[in-house]
Write a structure and sequence with these properties.
There is one protein chain. The chain is mainly alpha-helical and 150 residues long. It has 2 domains: 83 residues, Helicase, Ruva Protein, domain 3; 31 residues. 60% of the residues lie in helices and 0% in strands. It contains 6 helices and no strands. The longest helix is centred in the last third of the chain and has 28 residues. The radius of gyration is 32 Å and the shape is elongated. The protein starts with a helix and ends with a helix.
Length: 150
């Protein structure tokens, strides 16, 4: 029974990440804050959004998002403010602009390069003369027969 309780607590841990004192009284602003928080990375937990993280830094980021929304900022302005402060790494879905285009394009470019190298290899292999297809001379055949008789 204790194990089941422990497993349920671990599974439900992210549900307790947003503390009741963080929740805004305006449901519309709270919904916007939740939407923004889902796209921001916890800098401590790495691949967890700040809404699901129990880290202290994630709490600070959630409070910052809510403060900016209460101050009247748009969703884009809030995200831009957080990115300006913490860098683009804070975004769970990085932009494709700037130097990031190389990261986005690296996978498909490597795939195309690998396919091209494979195609070149196959073409050269087809064009190469077949080895070992030459028949034995009469002298070599006689020698082979002598060896096999022994």
């Amino acid at each position: 029974m204790k194990r089941l309780f422990l497993i349920l607590c671990l599974i439900a841990a992210p549900a307790f990440a947003v503390q009741p004192d963080e929740v805004l009284s305006d449901p519309a602003l709270e919904a916007r804050a939740r939407t923004i928080s889902k796209d921001l990375r916890c800098l401590v937990c790495r691949n967890e959004n700040i809404d699901d993280s129990n880290a202290e830094l994630a709490r600070d980021l959630r409070l910052m998002v809510r403060e900016r929304l209460v101050a009247g900022d748009s969703d884009e302005a809030v995200v831009r403010y957080v990115v300006d402060r913490y860098g683009e790494y804070v975004l769970l879905r990085p932009t494709t602009g700037g130097a990031n285009w190389l990261l986005w394009a690296a996978g498909p470019l490597m795939l195309l390069g690998g396919l091209g190298m494979g195609l070149v290899y196959l073409r050269k292999r087809q064009a190469a003369p077949e080895q070992g297809s030459a028949a034995l001379s009469d002298e070599e055949q006689a020698r082979l027969n002598d060896i096999l008789k022994e």
